[in-house]
Amino acid sequence: MKSQLLKLFLTFFKIGAFTFGGGWAMISIIEREIVDKNHWIDREEFLDLIAVAQSLPGIMAVNVAAITGDKICGLKGSIWSALGTILPSFSIILIIAIFLTPDLIKSNETLSSIFMGIRPAVVALIIAPVISSARAAKIGLKTMWIPIAVALLIWSKLPYISNPILYIVAGGAYGCFIHTRRARKHLNEGKEETE
Which of 16, 89, 109, 114 has the most CB atoms around its CB within 10 Å? Predict the structure, then answer.
């Protein structure tokens, strides 16, 4: 148990320490660590985990870490995984707050260049999990319009329409509707066979 807790902590510490750009930028690295490398969960379960983590309040990467830790080692796993994710960022922000001020970053060409160089890499880190999530969700040519339309509506910044919560709730309601319809269809087919 202790070795598993240490492995969870170190895995999420590494993710937290070497990922820039926040939640979505971390997803591809988290996926590689918990799905491909450690085989703690499978790819489809990972997609569900991302959906749940995104709909919960708080930082998505910490939510993913806590849910994964809980699955592997219960409450202790959840705490150690979340701590592993938070600790690197907290330490780096503390150091930056002590030694680097925004004026110093803007006036220092080297630091400004470093941050400018990181930005395109962060965009790539965000795009990579979108592609792998689309594959895992089995989004094809017939359904690809849905995430594109939702992304454009959220990006529009129109009142009410650009609220992501609306689409999370609508997606959940649609999923319940489809599940209920399929269950009724199977129930009716079962009744027909028995008659």
Answer: 16
Query: What's the pTM value of the predicted model, to 2 decimals?
Result: 0.57
* Separation of alpha carbons 131 and 135, rounded Å: 6
Enclosing domain of residue 173: 141-195
Report the distance separating Cα 126 and Cα 131, nearest Å: 9
- Residue with structure tokens 């503390």? 94
Do residues 112 and 156 share a domain?
A: no
CA dist 122 and 36 (Å) reads 21
Question: Looking at 38-181, which runs of residues are DSSP E strands?
Answer: none
Residue 35, classified by CB atoms within 10 Å of its CB into exposed (0-12), middle (13-18) or buried (19+), is buried
Instruction: Report the C-alpha gap between 21 and 123 in whole angstroms.
Output: 8
Higher-confidence residue of 65 and 123: namely: 65
| Chain position carrying tokens 């799905």 | 35
Tens digit of each residue's pLDDT (9 = 90 or more) over 88-123: 888 887 887 777 766 776 777 887 788 778 778 777
Q: How many CA atoms lie within 13 A of 135 on its CB side?
A: 6
Question: Are residues 132 and 61 part of one domain?
Answer: yes
